[in-house]
Amino acid sequence: MEELLGLREGSSGDPVTLQELWGPCPRIRRGIRAGLEWLKQKLFRVGEDWYFLMTLGVLMALISYAMNFAISRVVRAHKWLYREIGDSHLLRYLSWTVYPVALVSFSSGFSQSITPFSGGSGIPELKTILSGVVLEDYLDIKNFGAKVVGLSCTLAAGSTIFLGKVGPFVHLSVMIAAYLGRVRTKTIGEPGNKSKQNEMLVAGAAVGVATVFAAPFSGVLFSIEVMSSHFSVWDYWRGFFAATCGAFTFRLLSVFNSEEETITCLFKTSFPVDIPYDLPEIFFFVALGAICGVLSCAYLFCQRTFLAFVKTNWFFSKLLATSKPLYSALAALVLASITYPPGVGRFIASRLSMGEHLDSLFDNKSWALMTRNSSPPWPREPDPQNLWLEWYQPEFTIFGTLAFFLVMKFWMLILATTIPMPAGYFMPIFILGAAIGRLLGEALSVAFPEGIVAGGVTNRIVPGAYALAGAAAFSGAVTHTISTALLAFELTGQIVHALPVLMAVLAANAIAQSCQPSFYDGTIIVKKLPYLPWIRGRKISSHRVTVEHFMNCAITTLAKDTPLEEVVKVVTSTDVAEYPLVESTESQILVGILRRAQLVQALQAESPSWAPGQPRCLQDVLAGGCPTEPVTLQLSPETSLHQAHHLFELLNLQLLFVTSRGRAVGSVSWAEMKKAISNLTNPPAPK
Amino acid sequence: MEELLGLREGSSGDPVTLQELWGPCPRIRRGIRAGLEWLKQKLFRVGEDWYFLMTLGVLMALISYAMNFAISRVVRAHKWLYREIGDSHLLRYLSWTVYPVALVSFSSGFSQSITPFSGGSGIPELKTILSGVVLEDYLDIKNFGAKVVGLSCTLAAGSTIFLGKVGPFVHLSVMIAAYLGRVRTKTIGEPGNKSKQNEMLVAGAAVGVATVFAAPFSGVLFSIEVMSSHFSVWDYWRGFFAATCGAFTFRLLSVFNSEEETITCLFKTSFPVDIPYDLPEIFFFVALGAICGVLSCAYLFCQRTFLAFVKTNWFFSKLLATSKPLYSALAALVLASITYPPGVGRFIASRLSMGEHLDSLFDNKSWALMTRNSSPPWPREPDPQNLWLEWYQPEFTIFGTLAFFLVMKFWMLILATTIPMPAGYFMPIFILGAAIGRLLGEALSVAFPEGIVAGGVTNRIVPGAYALAGAAAFSGAVTHTISTALLAFELTGQIVHALPVLMAVLAANAIAQSCQPSFYDGTIIVKKLPYLPWIRGRKISSHRVTVEHFMNCAITTLAKDTPLEEVVKVVTSTDVAEYPLVESTESQILVGILRRAQLVQALQAESPSWAPGQPRCLQDVLAGGCPTEPVTLQLSPETSLHQAHHLFELLNLQLLFVTSRGRAVGSVSWAEMKKAISNLTNPPAPK
Q1: Percent of chain B at pLDDT exceeding 70
Q2: Which family would the database say this protein is a member of (chains A, B) (predicted)?
Q3: pTM for the model
Q4: Where do the domains of chain B lie, and which CATH numbers do they carry?
């Protein structure tokens, strides 16, 4: 009966195969199949692209892990070589220096020979791209290999060169995101949807940060703060999803590879939980933030000045133009010679890797108190249980070593940033900040050896907490971000210092943001990339500046009745990308936009059929198939500068036409905006 | 000599007073004074308003702390009364129920009598305001008192009524922010700058959340996610500053009041740090997220349905219309009777306050394992050291109590949300989620009493971690936010479960967002507040819909040559807020916007001077001083729906005129957008 029913249902609806009919429980199976079908439709409906986000996260995690794995092998080989080579100073020196020199010059030569875009961190360029500028080929997947190989070599040179991974990794991730976006457009459709592509890039940036630090929260927030001035909650959610997939896979791999027992954070700390700090210490945390802010201004200024010096000095610029690997090798030789451990290197803890630097600086014991009465010798090899011994030299004390480390690494980092190879600059800055904080923390632990007495209770001061706050504050000030505070918590797995660290970061940012452009903005300025400045002078008078005061009135309009000869003359004599198309020369009513490239093509196609005696005008070319674009947005002369700036920023625009009563009267682009904004702060001299 | 030099310098520059001249070190003092002057200029320059933000944070922290303090006294008095009243069941029952009934009916009556806006959480209305709608008087400081008193009474009713503080606190904070914004406009200037005022409101929302939970990070992010669809990094930084000031002051007060020894988090947990969870547990965390997602859909559906039922049912609607306090008292009586501890209340841990609920649910010991062999009796009074005993009844076991708690609180919370008084709904939802997670965690700890064996190492399962994940996932799903995960970490001071909790929240959000509108959006729909829906159906065809397909073509334009009689007719027969002003009736070229209110005023001023025989037109009124507003932004018929939606959302617009070749051809407002968006998913039947 059951089967008969099934048969009847089958015959009235879908045809039922024999196998289906005779298998057990045909109804249930059909139900399950329908359910799966429904789930599939729900999950993979058009427009959904969570699987692309997941792919992006997983791919980047795989790459990040594989890169870390390969690099750790190379570093281990270097250590082995240095250890086994014997006691001859010359041999040891050579084995210490040749390795990074070779890696750096190879990295520089290889990546530069494939593509000139691969140098530096890539974040400034991405910032420009996300604000709407098209930088040709910058996100092409072809550059991927160059960047991966170059970055691996840079990182394999280790703490000698003292460069990080974040920036290039964000670039790599965005490259893959752009590639996946193109794949999606091909498979799903939705061509020409620029905002969709941007969504993918934003998620890519978040994944880049998250897969380096295994920190999804700060990955998303840091990439947002660095990349854009506005963002949508929708992008933020997508970023979280992709970043979580990435961070999870990244940490999962190290569990699978038996490096860890379970998924934990990268730099585990053990700060006391019950009373992590005494209330009066808040003052010192804020003071630390202020110190970090001032030092970050000094750093940013020196870095930008030196970068400009290298670009303009005839010797360096010639060297960089003709032989990049040689310059890189020279710089690496200087850096490696200084870090040679039996020489100056022993005073700057140069035998530690960058991860070990952080691990040791976040230590919650006070080194100054531990070495007050005893003076442990410098170990032959870094002791994994007591990494902090690397920071102690009896003749220098802890304070001497930390201060010397700061001074040396300050200029060494600036030198390293000029080497033209793929490298990140966030991690070294983070470590510098940690050292600043540690120095203050150690000083406080000596000044108050019994802790600060508040309310009758004494608690020891934890210098590691200051290192944490210093790292967050200094890196936050240099990059003009606040989410570095969150990053510090995600890296260490403890959030007990939430308020003091956040206050330090805010203090540092307040100073840095009012004095210097951020690291990435500074690079944009030095590299002369296009950018739209903020309106800083928030004066009342700035609200009275309207578009008609600064728009470009000298626009070339093309009217439908313009003779073709004149169109050709206009096209050949100007080189703007878009022309406003107006109804007639007389009325100047804006009706559309003509792209130069398409117009040239149409003119070329048209030209053979020209009959000399026949007067023809633009209308004929348009009728012949030259596409015009509709004007979807137009400014009025009365629009204020603030409104126009807001529009440009929010919608990632680069050019808008200004119409007055329908007539095209001008245009506004970044160039005009920039000029108007600079006039706000430095009013032009009256004529 | 030194003094002489000082004199000479003084005489050439500023005049020097005698006192200055004869005091010690005149130069240094002058230097210090100049430095202070410079600092003052730097800190208090026009346009800076950090001190308003700081004031906002500190004020809200003071209010929050004072409110908590007062409430704790009232609650303590209630507890004392209940304890001391003797063993008569009737007296005890009365003392248990009369208190909340009186408080709730007073709260409802008092706040509703002062202002009808004070009911509910306020977040839906704020969301509407921040999207650009003007809700008259909603942010007026006059309502402040009503909301504060009402909220205090609601909270003093304690866990009987089971309502929270977040929503109304956000509303209070935004009220103060709006007030401070008006003060700033008066003292500094910059009138009419709407975006500046919005900036202040956004910061206010962040402060509201941060001062309730002492959680600056999640305060900022939660308020952003709940309030807006887009936000600027600039607002985010300001939010951080204000929220940090608020959270710091809030915690500082409890240190000053000797409740805490130093600044720590609110619900400290002690999860194991080294191996917080085993890798396979990730599955259970994600499954928990999915369960929370499904339950949140059920909750949202029931809540919305019941709210609509109460509004439409003749009995309830009549009761609510005529006698709100009576309805509130009845509902409170039902809730209080059920929670009477010797009755049903003992099975739903009703003697615990809401904070104790959370504290006990985040406990890292497994209750099920502890009660497997022993059966501790129900204590006479809740034991602060063993709060979890409240969750255990020998005849019910832990699982029975937790499940019963969930089932009862589910409908009790829905009932409580219908009471018209100031109350927040986030905290109860957070606790419900914690209970869901705890139930799963306890079940797992029984199923795997030795922990899950992975790689030869065994670790006990921590049910508290599941409670944490459940709380974050359920509250995240109900409010459609992800930052609840961060809130869970900030509340507990531990971030070791970052990845599993985040994955649970993402899973819960994926389910909830695809099935139900969020709690706040649902309330907006039920309360019929204006809102702009998302474009959900991301179909390819949706990109082909342009403004001309859905714009309102039936607009009434006023031409400069329209006779005044006709203008009057138009003004009296229509009730739009703005009229497009066109050049002439014939050309219809858009030249400006006329506000109805101003036009009416100008017409009234004009009317006495009308001479009947003299034909006058609109031009004369305009020349007479009626102000016109410039058209700063206009759409074209070719603008796509997506672009227009983007513009409306980004710029908080409500109406834009559409021009084609300069001629005003239509208008687009939220009504048209909504219709167009609903047509995307349900295409209209072809005619």
Answers
A1: 91
A2: Belongs to the chloride channel (TC 2.A.49) family.
A3: 0.90
A4: 2-43 (no CATH), 50-256 (1.10.3080.10), 281-526 (1.10.3080.10), 540-681 (3.10.580.10)
